[in-house]
C-alpha cells in the first residue's frame, strides 16, 4: 500500500513539474507595435510628450509591405518604438481629413490613384518616396526623414539616436560607430 501511495505521489510530482515546465517552455507571443493615427499621437503628446515616429507608406508599395513584415516584427524595434515614440502609420494616399493646430490637411483628389495627402506631402517635404520614416521631436518639429526600406539592424541605431537625445550634441556617424544594439 505504501508503494502505491509513494508511486502515486511520485507520478503527481512528475506530472506537476512537467506541466509547469511545458508552460515555461512555450514562448510568449511577442508584443506588437502600438500604431497611432497622427491625431491620436498629437493628443497623447500633449498629455505625455514623446518623440513621434511616422511611417509614411502606400498600400501598393512592395518595400513598405516588406518593412511591415520584417523590420516592424523585430522585438527590439517593437520595444523601442513603443517605449520612446508615438509610432504613427500614415497612408500617403488616405482620404481622411487631419487637423493639426490651425491647419487642415486633406487629399485633394481622394480615391484617385497617386493623389497624395497634404500631410504626407508636408512631412516628406514634397519628396514622395515610400516607405519613408519621419522623426519629429516632442513639439512636432522635424528631426529628419529617412527614405527607403530599412531592416531592423539599420533602423535601431536611428531610433536610439533620437530616443537618447544624442542628436543634440553628437553627429549620427559618430554615434553609430559606438552604438551597441540588440537586434541580431
* Main sheet makeup: 4 strands, mixed
The value of Rg in angstroms is 23 Å
| CATH architecture name | 3-Layer(aba) Sandwich
Average the pLDDT over all residues and give the rounded result. Answer: 87
Give the SSE string: HHEHHEEEHEEHH
Any key phrases for this structure?
184 residues, alpha+beta, Glutaredoxin, two-stranded antiparallel ribbon, 7 helices
Describe this structure in words.
The protein has one domain (29-178): Glutaredoxin (3-Layer(aba) Sandwich). Helix 4 packs parallel to helix 6. It is α+β, with helices and mostly antiparallel strands. The strands form 2 sheets. A 4-stranded mixed β-sheet has the order 2-1-5-6. A hairpin with a 2-residue loop joins strand 3 (98-100) and strand 4 (103-105). It has helices spanning 2-25, 38-47, 62-69, 75-84, 118-123, 152-163, 172-178; strands at 51-57, 85-91, 98-100, 103-105, 132-136, 142-147.
List the helices and strands and how they pair.
Layout: H1 2-25, H2 38-47, E1 51-57, H3 62-69, H4 75-84, E2 85-91, E3 98-100, E4 103-105, H5 118-123, E5 132-136, E6 142-147, H6 152-163, H7 172-178
Parallel strand pairs: 1-2
Antiparallel strand pairs: 1-5, 3-4, 5-6
Helix pairs in contact: 4-6
Compose a concise summary of this entry.
The protein is α+β, with helices and mostly antiparallel strands and 184 residues long.
Amino acid at each position: 500500500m505504501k508503494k502505491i501511495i509513494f508511486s502515486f505521489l511520485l507520478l503527481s510530482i512528475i506530472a506537476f513539474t512537467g506541466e509547469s515546465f511545458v508552460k515555461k517552455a512555450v514562448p510568449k507571443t511577442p508584443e506588437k507595435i502600438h500604431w497611432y493615427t497622427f491625431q491620436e499621437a498629437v493628443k497623447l503628446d500633449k498629455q505625455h510628450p514623446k518623440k513621434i515616429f511616422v511611417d509614411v507608406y502606400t498600400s501598393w508599395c512592395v518595400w513598405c509591405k516588406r518593412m511591415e513584415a520584417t523590420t516592424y516584427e523585430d522585438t527590439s524595434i517593437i520595444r523601442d518604438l513603443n517605449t520612446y515614440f508615438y509610432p504613427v502609420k500614415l497612408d500617403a494616399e488616405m482620404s481622411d481629413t487631419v487637423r493639426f493646430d490651425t491647419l487642415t490637411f486633406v487629399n485633394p483628389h481622394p480615391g484617385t490613384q497617386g493623389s497624395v495627402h497634404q500631410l504626407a506631402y508636408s512631412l516628406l517635404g514634397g519628396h514622395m518616396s515610400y516607405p519613408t520614416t519621419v522623426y519629429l521631436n516632442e513639439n512636432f518639429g522635424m528631426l529628419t526623414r529617412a527614405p527607403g526600406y530599412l531592416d531592423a539592424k539599420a533602423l535601431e541605431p536611428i531610433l536610439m539616436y533620437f530616443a537618447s537625445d544624442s542628436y543634440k550634441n553628437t553627429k549620427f556617424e559618430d554615434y553609430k560607430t559606438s552604438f551597441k544594439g540588440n537586434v541580431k
